[in-house]
């Protein structure tokens, strides 16, 4: 859920490959139906500045959407297997994704391209997050390892 400038927004993603953008205080119907994923959606997150929504999917991609209108912005491709989890940096400039391909990828959201490829896990990556200062990423996976990555 996002509570930035303007009315509160909510985004939902599901196993029918679809996302919906909602404004619960204004209407019971969705503001936008967002399509483009080719497999079920694992996670959706508003950026901290509420301008962008990111979605992670079993279709091996991360997609970016306008947080106000739901308009499609870009696909971030690089993983070779399902993307399980994503996390925004506090400044909304970077996004990290963790995948069943055993890698993390750091994406430059403005440039819409890969900023860093982080191999190192021996198996699927289940959890990713940023440190509050944005200088490190933590990841955990099926290999039972917790890894800390410096930016």
UniProtKB/TrEMBL annotation:
<keyword id="KW-0677">Repeat</keyword>
<dbReference type="GO" id="GO:0005730">
    <property type="term" value="C:nucleolus"/>
</dbReference>
<feature type="repeat" description="WD">
    <location>
        <begin position="118"/>
        <end position="151"/>
    </location>
</feature>
<dbReference type="Pfam" id="PF00400">
    <property type="entry name" value="WD40"/>
</dbReference>
<dbReference type="InterPro" id="IPR001632">
    <property type="entry name" value="WD40_G-protein_beta-like"/>
</dbReference>
<dbReference type="InterPro" id="IPR020472">
    <property type="entry name" value="WD40_PAC1"/>
</dbReference>
<dbReference type="GO" id="GO:0007219">
    <property type="term" value="P:Notch signaling pathway"/>
</dbReference>
<dbReference type="InterPro" id="IPR019775">
    <property type="entry name" value="WD40_repeat_CS"/>
</dbReference>
<keyword id="KW-0539">Nucleus</keyword>
<dbReference type="InterPro" id="IPR036322">
    <property type="entry name" value="WD40_repeat_dom_sf"/>
</dbReference>
<dbReference type="GO" id="GO:0000027">
    <property type="term" value="P:ribosomal large subunit assembly"/>
</dbReference>
<feature type="repeat" description="WD">
    <location>
        <begin position="34"/>
        <end position="75"/>
    </location>
</feature>
<protein>
    <submittedName>
        <fullName>Notchless protein homolog 1-like</fullName>
    </submittedName>
</protein>
<feature type="repeat" description="WD">
    <location>
        <begin position="76"/>
        <end position="117"/>
    </location>
</feature>
<dbReference type="InterPro" id="IPR001680">
    <property type="entry name" value="WD40_rpt"/>
</dbReference>
<keyword id="KW-0853">WD repeat</keyword>
<dbReference type="InterPro" id="IPR015943">
    <property type="entry name" value="WD40/YVTN_repeat-like_dom_sf"/>
</dbReference>
